[in-house]
Design brief:
61% helix, two-stranded antiparallel sheet, mainly alpha
């Protein structure tokens, strides 16, 4: 059982991931430290109660492709430049997987898409298309979301909330 909600103290994101039974990654830091990002601070690696609740809501009700796009569009340009895409790929990889063949192929494919894009970067639509064709890019984010949905509220609850949110045009 995840008891993080019982404490208003800051919790290490790595400890939250361990309680969820998942490997820690820098992607998890970005997701759970979204308030740090909102104030243009580097993700601290710790999460207070408010940040945890915001992260759970964002993860469990948002379309993850759009959420990750927003988290990594650091300059708010509406495009993901190669450096931002590289940060996403590296952050989504665990320590052991950072140099895997899968990561190398993803980086090559992303580089090709950026070179073919008329903007020299990926728009939200281009990123969406890339993620649809290569779901492994965001697989770690989906793992976090799926585990959180089971632990906090249950899968059925989150499907209903997600459907209502989409019905009201919040994604």
């Amino acid at each position: 059982e995840l008891r993080v909600l019982q404490r208003a103290h800051r919790e290490r994101v790595a400890a939250i991931m361990a309680k969820l039974g998942l490997e820690h990654s820098d992607l998890a830091n970005r997701i759970f430290c979204v308030r740090d990002l909102a104030y243009n601070r580097r993700p601290s690696g710790t999460c207070d109660l408010e940040s945890f609740v915001v992260a759970v809501w964002n993860l469990c009700t948002s379309e993850l492709r759009y959420l990750c796009f927003e988290l990594y569009d650091v300059d708010a340009s509406g495009f993901l430049e190669m450096s931002e895409l590289q940060a996403l790929v590296v952050d989504a990889s665990t320590i052991d997987g950072a140099r895997s063949d899968r990561v190398v192929r993803l980086m090559q494919d992303l580089r090709t898409c950026v070179e073919e894009s008329p903007h020299g970067a990926l728009s939200k639509a281009e990123f969406d298309e890339f993620c649809a064709a290569r779901p492994s890019l965001l697989a770690p984010a989906y793992q976090i979301r799926d585990r959180l949905r089971r632990v906090v509220g249950g899968e059925r609850f989150w499907r209903r909330v997600e459907a209502r949110r989409q019905m009201h045009g919040k994604d």
